[in-house]
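Quiz preparation item.
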């Protein structure tokens, strides 16, 4: 999480400092219109820098995944960049209209518009001929972009609507590129802030085009066929096994993939619940009925049906050198640990790490718990099952009581956000180095 926050603030700080270097007299101006013009430029610049980075992350590039710690972390940054864009574009819109409102309320007097100064640079002259069109495009794209970001952020809107509308941000971004190129102060383009903006507009436009033509993740997509499915009614969970084509290059336990079974719904991310065996080329997903789409999967998926799988993604892969590991799987968050246990059971010899798995759940299914216990025994993992109504809630004290050498252990958590945050605060207060020892899967991709 620190890297996500650091990246967000670093982008803002770098953009702001470079802009201030281009406008050294920004704090000396007492003229309202001049100050307004500066705020319009600054807010528009920051909004487009943030939006460009968000657009690149939406294209799911491979190179930043390792640094951020997985695509889930990249998508969390993408979300907070979207929040920043929403706030900054509203700020930009406010300052763009401020003189008109101030004049209407009698706060300032606006004289007649004089002729625009003659521009010596022929490129600046040419761009100025598009000023009216750029302002029109920018205003209406602002309204559209605001609505699209709100739909993406408010989870009350169903995933289906989010999936269908979120892609319209790509053409909206391209329209805002036009707006930016025409209306950015021309003198900026030969300064460091202008060079930064040029670079980001180019890569952002490339990412938007990739999204529009449906090329995102194309080199990681394979076709699969459903081999079997099994439903556990008491915990509303569906287990689906899929045979994949030759293009699947394997995966590590703890990674996830996007699965498309209905093109109108789009791709949904699911953690892979099986170890990779090149001999049978089969992937298993365990899906809990938590929403409208996942609730309908049991009836909509059939044996023999073709699906599209894109992946693998994620860095929640249990790779560290700690002598002990503590796994915490809350509810359906148990899935990556199932995959890891199946992987360990097939290893000869097994890694020397001591592993304690805590599975906290509000729902109980004896058959599913028996399978979990069998996987733990085969992998040499110490299993602790806590049923909320029977055993109470899991907390840091319970984990430390069961794992005496917890200070030398790493924690791998996948489950409800509230539980993850509580455990992170608890172990951080107890002296654990969270950045190095606490690994948290941020599986909410929206």
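Solution:
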């Amino acid at each position: 999480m620190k890297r996500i926050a650091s990246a967000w603030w670093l982008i803002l700080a770098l953009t702001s400092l470079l802009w201030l270097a281009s406008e050294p007299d920004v704090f000396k101006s007492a003229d309202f219109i001049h100050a307004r013009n500066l705020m319009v430029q600054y807010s528009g610049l920051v909004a487009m820098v943030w939006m460009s980075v968000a657009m690149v992350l939406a294209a799911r590039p491979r190179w930043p995944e390792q640094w951020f710690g997985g695509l889930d972390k990249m998508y969390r940054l993408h979300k907070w960049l979207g929040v920043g864009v929403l706030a900054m574009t509203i700020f930009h819109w406010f300052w763009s209209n401020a003189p008109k409102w101030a004049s209407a309320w009698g706060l300032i007097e606006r004289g007649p518009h004089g002729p625009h100064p003659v521009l010596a640079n022929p490129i600046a002259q040419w761009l100025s001929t598009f000023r009216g069109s750029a302002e029109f495009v920018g205003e209406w794209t602002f309204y559209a972009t605001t609505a699209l970001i709100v739909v993406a952020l408010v989870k009350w809107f169903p995933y289906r609507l989010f999936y269908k509308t979120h892609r319209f941000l790509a053409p909206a971004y391209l329209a805002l590129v036009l707006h930016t190129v025409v209306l950015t102060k021309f003198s900026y383009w030969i300064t460091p802030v202008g060079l930064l903006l040029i670079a980001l507009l180019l890569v952002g436009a490339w990412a938007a085009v990739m999204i529009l033509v449906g090329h995102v993740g194309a080199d990681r997509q394979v076709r699969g066929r459903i081999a079997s499915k099994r439903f556990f009614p008491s915990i509303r969970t569906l287990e689906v096994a899929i045979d994949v084509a030759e293009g699947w290059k394997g995966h590590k336990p703890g990674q996830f993939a996007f699965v498309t079974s209905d093109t109108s719904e789009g791709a949904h991310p699911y953690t892979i619940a099986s170890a990779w065996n090149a001999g049978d080329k089969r992937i298993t997903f365990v899906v809990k009925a938590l929403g409208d789409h996942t609730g309908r999967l049991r009836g909509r998926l059939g044996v023999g049906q073709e699906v599209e799988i894109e992946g693998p993604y994620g860095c929640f892969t249990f790779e560290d050198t700690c002598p002990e590991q503590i796994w915490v799987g809350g509810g359906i968050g148990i899935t990556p640990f199932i995959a890891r246990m199946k992987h360990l059971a097939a290893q000869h010899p097994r890694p020397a790490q001591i592993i304690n798995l805590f599975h906290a759940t509000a729902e109980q299914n004896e058959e599913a718990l028996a399978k979990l216990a069998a996987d733990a025994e085969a992998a040499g993992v110490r299993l602790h099952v806590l049923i909320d109504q029977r055993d109470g809630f899991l907390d840091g004290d319970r984990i430390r009581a069961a794992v005496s050498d917890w200070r030398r252990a790493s924690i791998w958590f996948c489950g409800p956000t509230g539980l993850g945050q509580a455990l992170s605060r608890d172990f951080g207060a107890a002296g654990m180095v969270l950045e190095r020892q606490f690994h948290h899967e941020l599986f909410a991709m929206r």
